[in-house]
């Protein structure tokens, strides 16, 4: 009887450990929709260490791109130039300290960088 209870407990524990679903998607594009509100895509994989920013290519397509430094206060972002002077801080999280540019807020920082609730 003890062996049966032990095996039953192990089976329940195994089910609890495998409770999270993993979806493997093999496609060029993935569309995320939600019927009641806006859907959200959170990327938590090897792209966390990719230097650069998520660039909007248009028509809802994005890819990681690098910013090229033109001078100590100018960055080239594809066809646009971003000029930062002094200790500039924007409401969307873009800031510059010395020669370091922060695109967005730091990981784990509280609050919304866009100033929303």
Summarize the structure.
The chain is an alpha+beta fold. A hairpin with a 2-residue loop joins strand 1 (about 55-60) and strand 2 (about 60-65). About 15% of the residues lie in helices and about 25% in strands.
Instruction: Tell me the strand percentage band.
Output: 15-25%
> Biggest sheet, open or closed, and with what strands and sense?
3 strands, antiparallel
Count the beta strands.
7
Distance between the termini: 57 Å
State the order of secondary-structure elements, H for helix, E for strand: HEEEEEEE
Overall body shape: elongated
Low-confidence stretches: none
Helix content: 10-25%
**Rg value:** 22 Å
Look at the structure and give the mean pLDDT.
70
Tell me the layout of helices and strands.
Blueprint: H1 2-17, E1 53-58, E2 61-65, E3 68-69, E4 74-77, E5 80-83, E6 95-97, E7 100-102
Antiparallel strand pairs: 1-2, 3-4, 4-5, 6-7
Written description of the protein model:
This protein has one helix and seven strands. The chain is elongated, with a radius of gyration of 22 Å. β6 and β7 form a beta hairpin. The termini are far apart. The protein has a domain of 60 residues. It is of the alpha+beta class and 117 residues long. The mean pLDDT is 70. A three-stranded antiparallel sheet has the order 3-4-5, with no helix packed on it. Keywords: Signal.
